[in-house]
Amino acid sequence: MKYIDEYRDPQIAYALVDRIARLVTKPRVLMEVCGGQTHTLMRYGIGDLLPKEVELVHGPGCPVCVTPLEILDQAVLIAGLPNVILTSYGDMLRVPGSQSDLFAARANGANVRIVYSPMDALKIARDNPRRQVVFFAVGFETTAPANAMAVWQAKREGLSNFSMLASHVLVPPAMRMILESPVSRVQGFIAPGHVCTIMGFREYEVLASEFHVPIVVGGFEPVDLLEAILLLVAQLEEGRSVVENQYSRYLDREGNRAAQHMLRDVFRVADRKWRGIGEIPNSGLELREEYAAHNAERVFGLTPLSVQEPRECISALVLQGLQKPVDCPAFGKRCTPMTPLGAPMVSSEGACAAWHQYKRYV
What we know:
By secondary structure, the protein is an alpha/beta fold. It folds into three domains: 10-62 and 171-191 and 203-245, Rossmann fold, CATH 3.40.50.11750; 64-170 and 255-299, HypD, alpha/beta domain 2 (Rossmann fold); 315-354, no CATH class. It is built from 18 helices and eleven strands. It has a six-stranded mixed beta sheet with strand order 4-3-5-6-11-10, sandwiched between helices. A five-stranded parallel beta sheet has the order 2-1-7-8-9. Strand 8, helix 13 (222-238) and strand 9 (243-245) form a beta-alpha-beta unit.
């Protein structure tokens, strides 16, 4: 099943749906990890096309969504300091912390700027030597290499006015957390193709073997995801649990070794709190001691914060595939994309935001 320019061809999609329907013999619960995959599945109604035996649930695959409240509060605090320029991608500006967001900080006079690359933030630092320039960096393994390169370049140039507030998270530890849960329903995973483009999929082989769960690295087009679902169902029906690569047109088992080398040079693995879930061991990246001069937490003497999520939010259950967004009593009422209570509604890639946009009344 190798398709070239036919990823949106409905005939191929329906043929794959038919093959899945003829293959599946019992209920199967599958989880896609990436928020981009979630939105493709919802936008094209793929869950409604599948046989009733195949249930899709959504994982914690939106890095904006899982950025903890504490880090957001720190970003707002830094932005409000004198002689500071805080830079970040546009989608982070509207994400609420416990009290405010970066849009409100900018409206109150903070120098908050949208950039399209961490290298843009470096240029701002070069152009403003008398100001501290902070890049607010979030994301999975996909965005981490470019952010690592920015820190590496800042050190090389001696840019003492550039620092990074980093909140990077790693996918495999989150999958492990879900699989270790005694109430987990997930029988197979669609792993994120963009992450594996950087990291390869060796780490997923460990999970597949240890937990006896099939994993398919999938792309983002409708046919990519349908093919990944077919491969997962086939493994489950045959009693196999290995990693397969549906996204082979872009990645291989080893991934991008140059990017991995940059990650290892600049970052080290650390425990990380995920918004809506809590702390997951060894699930994040933090700057190594050699780059402490560019670590915003060190530069500004930030102290750890502890902030509680809204009690009525069930985002932890949604992100672990235990409940659907519409099971939340606040969904579409007190919790909307404009007034989000929890992590999956915060970003346009979140599961609750996808349900609100495409299946609000289902």
